[in-house]
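Hmm, what's this shape?
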Amino acid sequence: MSDQHPPLAQAPEPVQLAVDLIYLLESNAIDPAVALEAIYIVEADLKNKLNTATQASRD
């Protein structure tokens, strides 16, 4: 069955990062509710950075 899934090294970069983040959260026993709240904060920050970069490239 595992032959059907490509090795992580061949997975897209976002998948590799997601696996690394999941491992980091689980190995540090971070409460899932706390982790999810933190992810929303990170998401907002990254979206803000993308919007700022997009606006700067238009100027």
Observations:
- The chain has a mean pLDDT of 91.
- The chain is about 70% helix and 0% strand.
- The radius of gyration is 16 Å.
